[in-house]
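Async update (no meeting this week)

Hi team, since we skipped the sync, here's where things stand on the single-chain job. The sequence we agreed to prioritize is pasted below, unchanged from the tracker. I ran it this morning and attached the output directly underneath so nobody has to dig for it. Comments welcome in thread, and please keep replies under the output.
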Amino acid sequence: MAESSRVLRVADVVAETAQAHSIVFDTEELDYKPGQFLTVRIPSDECGSVARCYSLSSSPYSGEQPRVTVKRDGYASNWLCDNVRPGSELEILPPSGVFTPRSLDEDLLLFAAGSGITPVMSIVRSVLGDGEGHLTLVYANRDENSVIFAGALRDLAARHPDRLTVMHWLESVQGLPTTEQLRALATPFAQREAFVCGPRPFMSAATSALKSLGLPRSRIHTEKFVSLGGNPFEIAEREQRRSKSTQAAQTAQSPTTLTVSLDGTQRTLTWPRDRKLLDHLLDEGMDAPYSCREGQCSACACRITSGEVKMLNNEVLDSEDIADGIVLACQSLPITDEVSISYE
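Output:
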């Protein structure tokens, strides 16, 4: 088992639709934020195991048991839907992701399509249960039978009619939503912080609509579902072995001076030039977030506030992210003699 992973027992499995199930874990001791995800290890006859990321759909503030929601889509998701039962055990990595509101008291505009509702549902439950914010949700699906959390959303809207508005979009009735149509729906709420999750074409249309309304990019948050090419559980185990076997090794270049702001604290470290940022932070005992460790997700993203790094691989950040100083810690090596980063 990877050093930072843990095993959780399944308390219940809830059928949300014919294609989607929520897996409820038998614990209340999981420290996560609304909109974050878990990386789950799934057994495989071909390669031992694979890893996939699944968003938490529960609220961390309600006292309810944490749950992830899984929609059938490939080997790993199908295996979970077919094989996980109450009493099953699953190995997970710590909760990760930055698709989470800064405040539960702020009014939000939410766009979701298909299983993209999962992290959005966590945000909805958290804001309504423990905040004062008003929420407008635009939720697109293929048809009425595909609507995950249909009953839960109906109940929440009935209990909070002045704070939650849900606008359903059904492809079977209205066709695929266009940028112009989503812009029209967003116009009355154009000043709100926005969260977008769903298939890539939907996210592109929604973000384009929001930008055309003048919403600053810093107030548009997106969550991209990606299929991990590697296995972060096995990568973590290899990195632990590598770290132990090379602790005495020194590089020809002098190390970089690294200043890190994480979880409200600041530390200054020496950073070897040949050591990836994430690996070094974990070696130093810092609780830096991560998931795939291969540059295929944004769980380890941080901001360079001074200095410069180079990324060995990047499959998720766009040019605007990079221009804003965002980098992937799992792929970053130092270039300058001093580097400062922030996870805040």
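Quick observations from my side:
Residues 6-92 form a domain with the Elongation Factor Tu (Ef-tu); domain 3 fold (CATH 2.40.30.10).
The chain is about 25% helix and 30% strand.
Reply here if anything looks off.
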